[in-house]
Amino acid sequence: MIDKYGREIDYLRISLTDRCNLRCIYCMPEEGVKSLSHAEILTYDEILRICRCAADLGIRKIKLTGGEPLVRKGCASLVKQIKAIPGIEKVTLTTNGILLAEQLDALLDAGIDAINISLDTLDSELFKKVARRDGLEKVFEGIEAALAHPGLSLKINSVPVIKEKENFIGIAGLAQKYPIHVRFIEMMPIGFGKQFPFQDEESIKAVLEEAYGPMHAVNERYGNGPCHYYEIAGFKGKIGFISAMTHKFCSQCNRVRLTSEGFMKGCLQYQKGTDLRGLMRGGCTDSELKKAIYQVIWNKPVSHNFYEAKTEQDEIRGMSQIGG
């Protein structure tokens, strides 16, 4: 699939649920948000139907996310069924890691290709402050379990909401000690993220170079998305940056998103998209469903404009509702 701006769109991010077992301060309020009912979220059969149609249109990579995808029962079974769809080359997962250790064997048996773990600090007290829940020990159990399988690609996603230099140095140190790629993600003004100024790539890079020495850019890609990477002497993994604010990568964006309630959208910033759940439950044919997916991809916005004045087209939902 090529959109109207010539970008090849081959990557679909699917939110399995809007529910989560954490309450991260930049994602949702402490009391949480009103959860969708089971009838409102897509069934696994509906997700598989969308994946089959998307694969026919050229989607090759699927990312499962949430909320927290592992709180929804049967995630591994879904992975296995998506992997069996002709044309799908990779199925990956983004998780907060709390439930990973207990579900990892099933995910591996299902053929999961890569796992990203969201982790913003190595300090247990700061973890509780950011996530508003305990659980750092469980996250590390998940990391250790994943590291026991060298063939599994493992990355850490860190949103630099804690500004202390020591926190950046500690998180990056995971890539020194383990064969893990650590990626720092600039905060975007979506939902509760609007309350927090983003920490720019260059300032984090300066802190890391002071602590660990020169960082050298590498050309290799280590995933489906827009992350760019650096290597540091003596590190087993790479340090990456997903810098939507300071290094706008929209011209290379290759993804569309599907919310847990079946709304497909082309860009995080905008509400524009199509209700695929409504079409399917209204009795649409696969041909009609493919046409709807095609239109979302073809009409994908040229770029975000987070620095511009807000418009009525801007997304009003939080990341847990959109799909992180």
From TrEMBL:
PROSITE patterns: MOAA_NIFB_PQQE, RADICAL_SAM. The keyword Metal-binding applies. Residues 4-226 form the Radical SAM core domain. GO terms for molecular function: 4 iron, 4 sulfur cluster binding; cyclic pyranopterin monophosphate synthase activity; GTP 3',8'-cyclase activity; GTP binding; metal ion binding. InterPro entries: Aldolase_TIM, Elp3/MiaA/NifB-like_rSAM, MoaA, MoaA-like, MoaA_NifB_PqqE_Fe-S-bd_CS, MoaA_twitch, MoCo_biosynth_MoaA/MoaC, rSAM. Its cofactor is [4Fe-4S] cluster. GO terms for biological process: Mo-molybdopterin cofactor biosynthetic process. It comes from the Bacteria. It catalyses: GTP + AH2 + S-adenosyl-L-methionine = (8S)-3',8-cyclo-7,8-dihydroguanosine 5'-triphosphate + 5'-deoxyadenosine + L-methionine + A + H(+). Its EC number is 4.1.99.22. This is GTP 3',8-cyclase. It comes from Blautia wexlerae.
